[in-house]
Amino acid sequence: MYGPDGPTLRELAVQALSSVEHGYDLLAPKFDHTPFRTPDSVLESVGRELAPAGPFADGLDLCCGTGAGTEVLTGLCRNSVTGLDFSAGMLDVARRRVRPGAGPTIAWVRGDARALPFTAAFDLVVSFGAFGHFLPRELPTLFRQVHGALRPGGRFAFPVLAPPRPTHPAYWTLLGFDAVMRVRNALWRPPFVMYYRAFRLGAVLAELDRAGFAVELSALAAFGRRDDGSPRARLVVARRLSPPPAA
Fold first, then answer.
1. Contact in structure between 174 and 196 (CB atoms under 8 Å)
2. Please, are residues 78 and 105 in contact by the beta-carbon 8 Å criterion?
3. How many Å apart are CA 123 and CA 239, to the nearest integer?
4. Is 146 within 8 Å of 121 (Cβ atoms)?
């Protein structure tokens, strides 16, 4: 599947029946040859949108995978860039493909985004395509962790694509995928959490507000607008307020 360099159907099946962590360890060598990897067009658009607010001192790529977003940060940060992921296999690939250069230092950390080992360490946190791995009830913890990892005034930025309408085949594809994953997780352990339709923008904005962020939305102009005039893609930029909210 996905061409000669991508995973086979058997490899995808083995991954899907594994835990999230082990599944991505298995997929890591071929991950960049799958549709699961964030497209360069999204990465580049986010980089262009954030550039006028920079340069930033230190940045974190949350759930960095093979490091595509980390590369974006190397063009936005002057001191250091850190990629964090809980898959050792993904980090191994990231280390090989994102080489240190004349810009910021690069560090790789294996860790859980729901228990970040950082306190007020970054001016910019980005994340690309990882939120389907978090259940809605986990978002408050996730956002509090990001809030604590940012310095006062620091930004948490991530793109959000407009969901397809019911008249589009992609709507039914994503609906079917999520339904299959729910059945799989009801029948098989360990669970593999990946739900494309669980990350709802309205709920996300409310949780960011509760976590102590001031949120701004901007359209990613490269993706145009839908027939009703709404953007096809937005950038969420959540700025950490100080002091942090009470637990």
1. yes
2. no
3. 10
4. no
Tokens representing 51?
């550039």
Structure tokens, 138 = 């986990």
Distance CA 210, CA 57 (A): 26
pLDDT in tens, 34-67: 887 899 999 999 999 999 998 999 999 999 999 9
Contact 52, 75 (CB under 8 A): no
3-state helix, strand, coil in the chain (%, to 5): 40, 25, 35
CATH classification number, 9-240, choose in 3.40.50.150, 3.30.360.10, 1.10.287.3240, 3.40.50.1820: 3.40.50.150
What residues contact 170, with CB distance under 8 A and at least 6 apart? 164
- What sign does the CA torsion over 50, 101, 40, 157 have? negative
**Confidence bin at 212 (pLDDT 50/70/90):** very high
Q: Among residues 146, 106, 151, 154, which one has the least CA distance to residue 130?
A: 146
CA 100 – CA 102 distance, rounded (Å): 7
Domain boundaries, the chain: 9-240
Q: Show the DSSP H helices in 75-189 as ranges.
A: 88-97, 139-149, 169-187
Helix, strand or coil for residue 213? strand
Residue with tokens 């230190």: 58
Q: Is 157 exposed, middle or buried (0-12, 13-18, 19+ CB in 10 A)?
A: buried
Compute CA distances 55 → 159, 172, 233, 247, whole Å: 19, 41, 24, 31
**Structure tokens given for 159:** 């793109």
- pLDDT 10s digits, 73-96: 999 999 999 999 999 999 999 999
Q: What is the CA radius of gyration of the chain?
A: 18
